[in-house]
Design brief:
Radius of gyration: 19 Å
Order of helices and strands: EHEEHHHHEEHHEEHEEEEHHEE
Strand content: 15-25%
Oligomer: single chain
Shape: globular
């Protein structure tokens, strides 16, 4: 087994956690676990021969793949899909790309289970609106993807903690892209981390509460629900994520998240045997950026240890 300890991917950093998970989504030969030190970092490994970084570099998405994704704005003979997604547009895309290998880009960014007045559907918490003309998540993905010139070298640098940062809003939700509290318009993002974090969304489908039918005659806004997100009136919306000690591929991570999030949601006390099977030894939840006024539409998520 070959492995690479990713000092640049601490679990306490939301986008690094997503990037580590996204690596296993890009190539199913890769396995992921986290060190058990006080500040866990990702470890990528393989069951067979081959350097994990070389494997990931070979699997790096091409521009052609990104352009062909179901959430791309323009596809032949289909209505354009922009930031404001109407229910009819979503239905058309879902039917056209049901068997597409990247069909998850639809189910992890928007959902037809929540529809606002006027027919606009609900976006995921990790699909926030962007500034200026780069509002749609797919546009932002194209932009950061274009900043990665040499995947093998750039991956090693980013995973080692010395990755380059470029002037970019990234995917639009990483708190560390904000360089100074005094000027949130100045943003720097690591394009490698951003691209991989996008693929990490594959394991975080979004749903919605739909319409509150218990309050007839009262207009209600559907509340979005993305896997791992919880809400409370006292603290709003937050996302919880674990670190685990056993090596898992993307399917194994998928199963672990089901069990762990269920135990968190129900506050169930797991039997010792089941808790040992999960192998979770650390966890974090997000803390949202506090806006500085009504004109500040900045979105960002920091983290705190659970």
């Amino acid at each position: 087994m070959a492995e690479f300890v990713c000092r640049g991917l601490p679990g306490s950093w939301l986008n690094a956690w997503l990037a580590a998970v996204g690596s296993t989504v890009l190539d199913d030969r890769l396995r992921l676990h986290w060190t058990t030190e006080s500040s866990p970092v990702a470890v990528l490994s393989t069951d067979g021969p081959g350097d994990p970084i070389e494997i990931l570099s070979d699997a790096w998405p091409t521009r052609e793949r990104i352009d062909a994704m179901p959430i791309a704005c323009d596809h032949d003979d289909l209505a354009a899909m922009k930031r404001t997604v109407l229910i009819d547009v979503f239905v058309e895309r879902a039917r056209a790309f049901r068997r597409h290998p990247d069909a998850w880009t639809l189910s992890s960014t928007v959902t037809d289970l929540g529809v606002y007045d006027g027919g606009e559907i609900v976006h995921a918490p990790l699909d926030p609106p962007g500034p200026g003309t780069i509002k749609w998540l797919h546009h932002r993905l194209i932009k950061v993807h274009g900043e990665v010139d040499k995947p093998d070298e750039d991956l090693r640098d980013s995973f080692s903690g010395s990755g380059k940062r470029v002037k970019s809003n990234g995917l639009g939700f990483d708190l560390t892209r904000l360089t100074t509290p005094a000027d949130v318009s100045e943003k720097l993002a690591d394009p490698v981390i951003e691209v991989l974090a996008f693929f990490g969304l594959a394991l975080l489908p979004v749903r919605s509460t739909g319409v509150d039918m218990t309050r007839p005659g009262v207009r209600t806004r559907p509340e979005r629900r993305q896997r791992g997100w919880r809400s409370a009136r006292s603290r709003g919306l937050w996302f919880e994520r674990p670190a685990w000690e056993q090596t898992l591929d993307s399917a194994g991570i998928d199963a672990l998240l089901d069990a762990w999030h269920e135990s968190r949601a129900t506050r169930a006390k797991l039997p010792d045997g089941e808790r040992s099977m999960l192998g979770v030894h650390a966890a974090w939840r997000t803390i949202g950026y506090q806006t500085r006024g009504s004109a500040d539409n900045t979105v960002g998520y920091g983290s705190e240890r659970i």
